[in-house]
Task: inverse folding
């Protein structure tokens, strides 16, 4: 039995949660920290300073920003927001293989979940029209063990390397995520992997994809298509209540959604819905593929 007295209520009301207590909105603007919106010099230092600060909203104003490396997003309740597609441009120029531009990952064990993060309103380029940066394998956006992550109004373009291995969106757990109005033009547009080192964990639960445009190519016009489907679900990943809805389009010679299981006893999925998913096979008539492959 619990009794709340008037004095107890007064005590609670007297407390004010301030920034000193870790509360309140903290907005940081990368230009204020020295980022170059003209695209002439690197903005690595300014973006890194913003990402390691205790911000809640990181503003990236309209402009072109050259990035070669960034630290991971490791704190809860942090949102990165641009000024809109084709207004805020991030040009990624890595100097080594297997790097990630926006890496939402607290780096901990499976139990350490990253909550309430988001990425909104920008264009992410791995090159320019006719000049993709082909030297290094890379990933544009990676989520690992995240809960209530939101990604909205993002386009990823010219995302390529010479081995056709660069990934637009790579997901490795966990739940309650939303992806809306996303365009991905990459060697491997979208990969869904299992969370742990072995199958059987909560890999993707209660997640919605709406209005997704995938293209497994890196130049347009005169596209060169990669030998990969638009969406690959890795064998061993368990999906629960995952939905594609709205208007979803895949342009690829090698299929739309590809999901094959090797029969791992620890893996099962429930409640996966794929609605309004169109596959366009643009060039190689001799290559076999299917709009959706589940086996």
Result:
């Amino acid at each position: 039995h619990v009794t709340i007295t008037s004095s107890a209520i007064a005590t609670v009301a007297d407390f004010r949660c301030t920034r000193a207590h870790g509360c309140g909105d903290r907005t940081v603007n990368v230009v204020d920290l020295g980022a170059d919106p003209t695209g002439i010099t690197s903005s690595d230092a300014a973006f890194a300073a913003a990402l390691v600060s205790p911000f809640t909203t990181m503003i990236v104003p309209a402009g072109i920003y050259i990035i070669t490396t960034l630290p991971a997003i490791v704190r809860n309740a942090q949102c990165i927001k641009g000024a809109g597609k084709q207004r805020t441009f991030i040009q990624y120029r890595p100097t080594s293989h297997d790097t990630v531009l926006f890496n939402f990952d607290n780096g901990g064990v499976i139990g350490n979940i990253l909550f309430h993060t988001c990425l909104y309103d920008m264009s992410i380029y791995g090159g320019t029209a006719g000049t993709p940066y082909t030297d290094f394998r890379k990933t544009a956006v990676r989520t690992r063990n995240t809960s209530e992550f939101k990604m909205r109004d993002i386009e990823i373009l010219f995302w390529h390397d010479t081995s056709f291995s660069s990934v637009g969106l790579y997901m490795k757990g966990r739940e309650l995520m939303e992806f809306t109005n996303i365009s991905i033009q990459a060697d491997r547009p979208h990969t869904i992997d299992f969370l742990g080192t072995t199958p059987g964990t909560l890999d993707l639960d209660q997640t919605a994809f709406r209005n997704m445009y995938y293209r497994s190519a890196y130049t347009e016009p005169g596209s060169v298509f990669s030998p990969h489907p638009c969406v690959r679900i890795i064998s061993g990943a368990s999906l629960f209540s995952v939905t594609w809805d709205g208007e979803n389009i895949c342009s690829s010679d090698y299929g739309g959604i590809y999901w094959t299981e090797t029969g791992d006893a620890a893996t099962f999925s429930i409640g996966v819905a794929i609605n309004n998913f169109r596959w366009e096979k643009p060039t190689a008539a001799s290559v076999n593929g299917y709009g959706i492959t589940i086996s």
Q: What stands out?
A: Residues 6-14 form the longest helix (9 residues).
